[in-house]
Write a structure and sequence with these properties.
Order of helices and strands: EHEHEHEHEH
Distance between the termini: 9 Å
Strand content: 15-25%
Number of helices: 5
Largest sheet: 5 strands, parallel
Structural class: alpha/beta
Helix content: 40-55%
Amino acid sequence: MSKVLIVEDSLTDKEILTLCLRDRGITVLTAKSAEEAFEQIKSHHFDLIILDVVLPDRSGFEICRELKEDASTNQVPVIMCSTKGTAMDRFWGLKQGADAYLAKPIDQDELLQAVNQWVKL
């Protein structure tokens, strides 16, 4: 079974993403900060990470860049999800190493299409 980490500080967005993926049989773990995310990443192997951009302790852009620079996590696909949805935000997210960039509010079909590229649903 596939395992996904959702890094999201908004309870509503976290619940929407979690339910959408769990309904497809994916194991979901969550974190609401960079600190919690890195603790989860040290303890588990993830098939995919869904990452918010605006977090309380660090930017999702910074977290993504760190994940992609680390040999132990650079092969894990990252989907960034954010209210920051301009073309420049998307460009910057992809430049940091994100494999996809989705604007909020999340379209569940678009999310599942992006997830399906890396995780067997």
